[in-house]
Amino acid sequence: MRIVCESPYDFRLSWRMFSEFAGKNATREGSLALWWEDRPTSVFLKQTAREPAVVELIADPMPRQTRLFQQRMRAVLGADLQLETFYRRLRRDKTLRPVVNALVGLKPVRPPDIFQMILIAVSEQQISMRAAQGIRERILSSFGAPAGRLIAYPRPQDIASLGVDELRRCGLSQRKAEYLIALAGGIAAGDIDTESWEHMPDGELTDLLRGYRGVGEWTAEYILVRGLGREDVVPSTDLGVRRVVSHYLGGGRELSASDVRELLEPWAPWRGLTVFYLLAHYRMTQMGLDQAQ
What we know:
The chain is an alpha+beta fold. 48% of the residues lie in helices and 12% in strands.
């Protein structure tokens, strides 16, 4: 199965950024586990051409609805994201030019389904990404589904059927466990229509998400930018975002969320994508990719 992506595209770089905290759900070499057609499915992806940019993928078991599966994977890879206009704009700035030039072809990789993104977001509330990764690994081991050598994240119905204590044993707090079970139950029952989120305006969707218990401003914005590929959304209250924006654009001073929004205003409508590039560049140059938080 072939996916032709908008160039430039560097699958290896993009996947490395995605897989760093994926644990048993994905490998750095291009493998991923997900649910498809009610079956745990393993996928292997590899870029086979640069111009045009082509990613070949193999799925096991083979999807029956191949066109729908291709559409899903196109969204996961950000295949339709056009970077050239974004690059031209950022290269006008002497600070951002080297960031762009070091990361040509980098695209954000989305989790393969929105409930997985919700689980990721809830697990990362107010703790480090490394600590949240440990929690997710225990959730995967306890409630995920094997797909080859990897494990697919549990579905909403899998989490909705659990008790709070079962999730707390994985490291979630009482409240986070309650939030996740309630959100999973709403999705499984059809009361939360995640499919409608894809085409809702950013502000409207943010307000909708913040109406659910356990979803504050940071969680809603994180779901939009990472889970739905909204290129102009920034979780500006995030400490890591504030630090990296300060490092590149704020002279190293301590920034508030409003400071972050003000500094990023010139880069609309790509503020979220700009922050993604800043975070990726910082991880590679200041922390070393493998040690990045």
